[in-house]
Design brief:
The structure is a homodimer.
Chain A lengths: L1 E5 L4 H12 L3 E6 L2 H15 L5 E5 H6 L3 E4 L3 H11 L8 E4 L23 H8 L5 E4 L6 H5 L9 E5 L2 H12 L6 E5 L4 H4 L2 H12 L5 E5 L10
Parallel strand pairs in A: 1-2, 1-4, 2-3, 4-5, 5-6, 7-8
Antiparallel strand pairs in A: 6-7
Helix pairs in contact in A: 1-2, 4-5
């Protein structure tokens, strides 16, 4: 699958790039600067070795060229990034947003959140990209460090929300391609109001116990994933 | 330990009563009516059998008579209940609040939340009981049904927040007395703004997958519990 990772030069985006590249997907890293995007794509190819298919370009170009667009940017820059890619994202594209509205965006702490006007960062993104993309919220509970450490088994479930079941299943299939990861459909896009804040809860747990890598597993069922299966 | 369960006639409170009674604690069920409290205490003794120590009385009396006071009431009635027990809760009492600000309080859905003025239900409770109780938030991720089903192994971690480490550890020791349960210190009382909303997230997961009993486990460390240990 062709997957664009907007903000793919950041920790979370680069980690996602490595994991999806290793799974055999063609990843297009988007960056504010085409040179920086291309440089990080070279880094990814160096890490992943021959056969990995990773390119880099501008955010705008990356967003135009993939069936799935992942957006992994800090909340402070999220609205601007979406406005930048809005003219180039084709209608019908599956966009998944991994933004957590951490209070660091306004000088606060990473274990605190602010409340976006639209309810959640994912809903804000959906409001900006008003031309009919298929918006999904996902990947708030896996740190960039964990994603980049390819030998490290991932231990946290990915909570996926959205109003389009098929779009959730497509994003879910990417998650399933990453060893050890599971995805749980937590409902409508508005559930991002809760799932996005879990990043801050994990930061607080990490801080309380002086660990780096706390996560969530959802209990109560053997398998999660696509509810339509 | 003497534990008062305010709202102990409700599903969550009665479940907690059974679990703590079975663990050998003396539980005082509080209710708006002393008769109803006494009746449910009899029910609990009938279920738990000889040796269980469960009494029932009014919320006000229950709150006056225990070292730990658990408050398990719907959000719509939470402020009134705290105002009612305020004159009788001794200063220094450890109070743990299990309220989730579900939107059902205002005619909404159980997978949606409202935002209390103070940030969270636990902080609202703390603001009302302004005379120096030691407030803890806990028990938002275990359903009343699961608690009442004594043969059912509990699979969810209890997220505990508060500004008083010793109070959290005391509540944590009660949690540790319930088979299979673990507690995770998620930080300051204000973290209830996130942890309380997880009830709604679990309701949404239950609804999406048609299950009754989804829960959370925190990953990343073998043992959680008291950070001071």
């Amino acid at each position: 699958m062709d997957v664009a990772v907007i903000g793919g030069t950041g920790e979370e985006g680069f980690g996602l790039t490595l994991r999806l590249g290793r799974a055999g997907h063609h990843v297009i890293i988007g960056s504010r600067s085409a040179e920086k995007g291309a440089g990080r794509a070279q880094d990814a190819r160096d890490i992943l070795g021959d056969g990995a298919s990773v390119d880099g370009t501008t955010n705008e170009e990356a967003a135009a060229s993939a069936g799935v667009v992942a957006v992994t940017v800090p909340f402070a820059g999220q609205a601007d990034i979406y406005r930048a890619i809005k003219p180039t994202v084709p209608a019908g594209t599956i966009v998944f947003d991994a933004t957590s509205p951490l209070a660091t965006a306004v000088g606060g702490r990473a274990w605190q959140v602010v409340r976006p006007w639209h309810g959640s960062a994912a809903e804000q993104a959906d409001a900006i990209l008003s031309q009919g993309v298929r918006m999904v919220g996902a990947f708030h509970t896996i740190s960039g460090d964990s994603l980049q450490d390819l030998e490290h088994p991932l231990e946290s479930d990915v909570l996926v929300c959205g109003d389009d079941g098929e779009a959730k299943a497509v994003v879910g299939s990417l998650i399933d391609d990453i060893p050890n990861l599971r995805w749980v459909d937590v409902g409508a896009l508005s559930m991002a109001r809760i799932s996005e804040t879990l990043t801050a809860l994990l930061v607080s747990i990490n801080r309380t116990y002086k660990v780096k890598d706390s996560g969530f597993r959802i209990t109560g069922r053997e398998a999660w994933g696509d509810t339509r299966a």
